[in-house]
């Protein structure tokens, strides 16, 4: 009875929290709210899961819950994986941008080529057209 | 000897401080524009490349060779490069091959020139690497439909128009097969040009992870999983 109460409170709080986070990620939030709410009757009436399981051809309620749990976990992992990839791509963009910006600031579009002005001033956004020549090669 | 200004040579380097200076100096004798992308190295890679005459772009975090090449290509295109080459940092490529490749690219009117060690020479290439590369080629042929004689060769020249079409999204090693796949997708005209690979002790222990180890096959599989 005590455990039931704890679970009910926890599920309710998770659902409420997810509801308030819906602006950040509407689909994930909706999914968590639904799971939380569906969990409430299952916890308060322990035999409910058994009856549902029987009606859909699964022997025990615990099995039904396990299958659902696996399914939801897989969806969550996939979602996290996609997010990770997206974050990585954003990180790449930031690092690349910083590298290019710094090079353009430092070189002003000139590659430091000592063989004359032909190569200079090609950079469209070069802030400084300075001649930062590295060229002391033979 | 006059340096060639048409070609921008892009090198992705991660902890190659030992050799990058020599590689850049050798290139700079022939080409005016050498861009080294220091991919968050912990050693003196950036300083050595700069001292040898390269423009150095630095990733503040290590992102991987694919990401570094894309950064260098983006930079070269921003500077108005008509041709962009990719070149390995470990000294396994011969700068003279680039000249031949550029000529062949222009003569043939192709979009992309790819170096091939099987049309050229690969002194000292271990037999196990040869076998693995052949397997990678077979896989490449099946998945992209491109009939090439080499896989995972870092020596390439792209016309600016072609370079603009290829966006490398695979930050890590899988970019090599990604480039081939995207060349096939974009239906770019490819010319293969023989090139020499110098299998030095240094490149064998370091650079050759990419060009002939078991990783090649893993990369190809990873790419299939991700995309």
Short overview:
Chain A has 138 residues and is mainly alpha-helical. Among the domains of chain A are: 1-44; 62-112. Chain A has helices spanning 2-20, 26-44, 46-55, 61-107.
Tags for this model:
heterodimer; A: 138 residues; mainly alpha; 4 helices; disordered C terminus; B: 227 residues; alpha/beta; Spore Coat Polysaccharide Biosynthesis Protein SpsA, Chain A; seven-stranded mixed β-sheet; 9 helices; 7 strands; 19% strand; globular
SSE layout and pairings?
The complex is a heterodimer of chains A (138) and B (227).
Chain A: H1 2-20, H2 26-44, H3 46-55, H4 61-107
Chain B: E1 4-13, H1 20-28, E2 31-38, H2 45-51, E3 55-58, H3 65-78, E4 83-88, H4 95-108, E5 112-116, H5 127-144, E6 156-159, H6 160-165, H7 175-185, E7 190-194, H8 201-205, H9 215-226
Parallel strand pairs in B: 1-2, 1-4, 2-3, 5-7
Antiparallel strand pairs in B: 4-6, 5-6
Helix pairs in contact in B: 1-2
Describe what this molecule looks like in 3D.
The complex is a heterodimer of chains A (138) and B (227). Chain A has 138 residues and is mainly alpha-helical. Chain A has helices spanning 2-20, 26-44, 46-55, 61-107. Among the domains of chain A are: 1-44; 62-112. In chain A, helix 2 crosses helix 3 (46-55). The longest helix of chain A has 47 residues, at 61-107. Chain A is elongated, with a radius of gyration of 30 Å. Chain A starts with a helix and ends in a 31-residue tail after the last helix. Chain B has one domain (4-226): Spore Coat Polysaccharide Biosynthesis Protein SpsA, Chain A (Alpha-Beta Complex), CATH 3.90.550. Chain B has helices at 20-28, 45-51, 65-78, 95-108, 127-144, 160-165, 175-185, 201-205, 215-226; strands at 4-13, 31-38, 55-58, 83-88, 112-116, 156-159, 190-194. In chain B, strands 3-2-1-4-6-5-7 form a seven-stranded mixed beta sheet, with helices on both faces. In chain B, helix 1 (20-28) links the parallel strand 1 and strand 2. Chain B starts with a strand and ends with a helix. The chains are: A mainly alpha (138), B alpha/beta (227). Chains A and B meet through helix 4 of A and strand 2, strand 3 and helix 3 of B.
């Amino acid at each position: 009875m005590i455990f039931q109460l704890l679970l009910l409170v926890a599920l309710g709080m998770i659902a409420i929290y997810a509801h308030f986070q819906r602006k950040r990620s509407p689909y994930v939030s909706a999914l968590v709210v639904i799971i939380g709410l569906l969990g409430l009757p299952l916890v308060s009436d322990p035999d409910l899961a058994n009856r549902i399981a029987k009606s859909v051809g699964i022997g025990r309620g615990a099995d039904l819950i396990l299958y659902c749990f696996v399914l939801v976990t897989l969806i969550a992992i996939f979602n996290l994986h996609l997010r990770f990839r997206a974050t990585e791509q954003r990180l790449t963009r930031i690092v690349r941008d910083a590298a290019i910006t710094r090079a353009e600031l430092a070189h002003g579009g000139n590659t430091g080529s000592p063989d004359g002005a032909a190569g200079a001033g090609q950079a469209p956004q070069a802030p400084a057209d300075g001649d930062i020549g590295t060229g002391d090669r033979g | 000897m006059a340096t060639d200004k048409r070609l921008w040579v892009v090198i992705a380097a991660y902890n190659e401080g030992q050799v990058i200076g020599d590689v850049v100096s050798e290139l700079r004798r022939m080409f005016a524009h050498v861009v080294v992308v220091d991919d968050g190295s912990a050693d003196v890679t950036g300083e050595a490349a700069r001292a040898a005459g390269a423009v150095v772009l630095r990733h503040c975090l290590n992102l991987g060779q694919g990401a570094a090449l894309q950064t260098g290509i983006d930079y070269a295109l921003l500077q108005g490069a008509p041709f962009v080459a990719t070149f390995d940092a470990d000294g396994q490529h011969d700068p003279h091959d680039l000249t031949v490749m550029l000529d062949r690219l222009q003569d043939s009117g192709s979009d992309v020139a790819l170096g091939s060690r099987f049309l050229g020479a690969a002194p000292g290439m271990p037999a196990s690497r040869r076998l693995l590369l052949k397997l990678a080629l077979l896989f490449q042929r099946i998945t992209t439909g491109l009939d090439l004689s080499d896989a995972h060769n870092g020596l390439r020249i792209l016309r600016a128009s072609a370079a603009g079409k290829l966006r490398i999204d695979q930050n890590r090693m899988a970019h090599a097969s990604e480039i081939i796949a995207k060349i096939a997708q974009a239906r770019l005209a490819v010319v293969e040009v023989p090139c020499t690979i110098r299998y030095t002790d240094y490149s064998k222990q370091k650079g050759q992870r990419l060009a002939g180890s078991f990783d090649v096959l893993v990369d190809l599989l990873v790419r299939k999983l991700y995309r």
